[in-house]
Structures are given as C-alpha cells and as structure tokens.
Amino acid sequence: MRFDIITIFPEFFGAVFDYGIVRRARAAGLVEVAAHDLRGWTKDKHKVVDDRPFGGGDGMVLKPEPIFEAVESLAGACDANSLRAKGVRVVLLSPQGRVLTQGVAGELARCEHVVVICGRYEGVDERVADRLATDEISIGDYVLSGGEPAAVVLVDAVVRLIPGALGSETSAVNESFAEDVLDFPHYTRPPEFRGMRVPEILLGGHHAGIARWRRRAALRKTRRNRPDLLEDASLSEEDRAGLDEPEE
Ligand code: 9D3
After folding, report:
1. Which candidate, 246, 244, 224, 228, places its Cα nearest to that of 236?
2. Residue 173: pLDDT band with limits 50, 70, 90
3. Residue 215 has pLDDT above 60, yes or no
4. CATH of the domain at 140
5. Residue nearest to atom 18 of ligand 1 (CA)
6. Is the shortest distance between the CB of 132 and ligand 1 below 6 Å?
7. Using the 8-state DSSP alphabet, how is residue 200 labeled?
8. Among 50, 62, 93, 94, which is best to mutate for testing ligand 1, by the most ligand atoms less than 8 A from CB?
C-alpha cells in the first residue's frame, strides 16, 4: 500500500514515519509513505497556492489548480468512482469531514493507494471536495492549524491495520475500539510504588479471578471516561453487578 501526502509543509513529516510499527511496515515493504510539496505543481513564478475567498472574509483559501494537478500526477486522471474501483482513495483532510473512526481506518487499509490532501489557511476550494476527493475526513472535533497532524494520525491508524503490520504482536482485532469497552488497567513491578499498591488479585495466579477483575475495572473506567461507549454495549448480569458495586 502507498500513501502520497500533498502538503505545503513536506518537512513536517521529516521523521514521524521512522518509528515503531510504521517504520517496521515500511522496512518490510508493506507500505510506502511520501510527502510532496504542493508548490511543485504550481505554474507561476511565485508558486502561489492560495488566494482570497470569493464573497469576502478573512484568511486565504487553497486554490484548486495545483491540488488537481498534484492528484492527477500521483493517481492518474480521475473521477471519484473509477478511483474507488481501482482501490485508490483521495482523502481531503478537513474539519468538515466525516470523523475518522476505527471503521474508516479499516476501510482505507484495504486500499492500494491513498492520496492525502492537507488543508491549511481558512480552507480549501470546495471543488476539491466536490470533484476530486473520494473522501473528506476530520480526525475529531477540535481545531488544528492544518491537515498535517491529521495526516500523521490517519497514516498511523491505517498502517497498523494492514495485514502483517503488527507482526507477532496481538492482532488489531481485539484492541480497544474494536469493542465498546475500553482496555483494562495495566500494572508492572514493583508491587508497591510510593505507597500505591497493585491490586492484590493481580499478584496471584488466579486466572478466573484476574479475568473478572479486569472486566469490572474496564467497565468502571469506561463509565468514568467514556460513558457514551456503554450506551450500545451489551452487558451481562455480572457486568451490571460489577458496575453497581460501591468504590473500594
Ligand atoms: C473558521 C472556521 N474553521 C473551520 C472549522 C476554519 C479552519 C480551522 C482549521 C480551517 C482549517 C483548519 C485546519 N484544520 C484542518 O485542516 C483539519 C482538521 C481540524 O482542524 N480538526 C480535525 N480534523 C482536521 S483534518 C484537517
């Protein structure tokens, strides 16, 4: 699989893909990632990529011409349907996109080629979203300065779902967010640190007891930090009983 990232800050991506699972997947030849300077597709002397918004208002808008030129040179002449049919996605990263979820990442992980357009300034000429991008994606409801940090998040989330990328480690299927309950709390040595004890049940070898403790702790933490997830979780009687117990 290949990612081509179109950006006005290609140096932003200097070493971010040289670590961990993404590095290993690249080394194994499972994925290629390249960042390209949008200015390379301008045709004027000053390499202008932005202009003032029609209708007025603050800020500048990324012009359509260099973005269309960039995508056509990286993905071939294109309409959204024939691109999707070829396993090519053109992702516009913008605050107006559908929100990136594990499901969206899984969809992209099945593609051969993902071209990522990073927005900047106040926005991107809407003809890019309308006629060039196959997908418009946001990484969440907060304001970034541009699409570049979002591109890093997208590549990371997608690469770990490419078959073979996780190697011998636990499969992506049973990770948090493959489910509707968060992961359970983890502890390692020492058993007491600055007066904080590791829960006693984890120190013995009572596997059924440990499994019950972990499930209960995961549910309680989910209720505290992400109560929204529990709304469509299917909970057993024992799950509900564990949630109802008072704080120890
Ligand atoms: C004035 C209204 N703002 C739109 C909500 C303007 C604006 C803010 C931030 C225009 C562009 C940006 C830059 N952000 C992105 O390009 C972006 C983004 C984000 O800000 N949040 C979450 N996901 C993404 S993906 C790309």
Report:
1. 244
2. low
3. yes
4. 3.40.1280.10
5. 95
6. no
7. G
8. 94
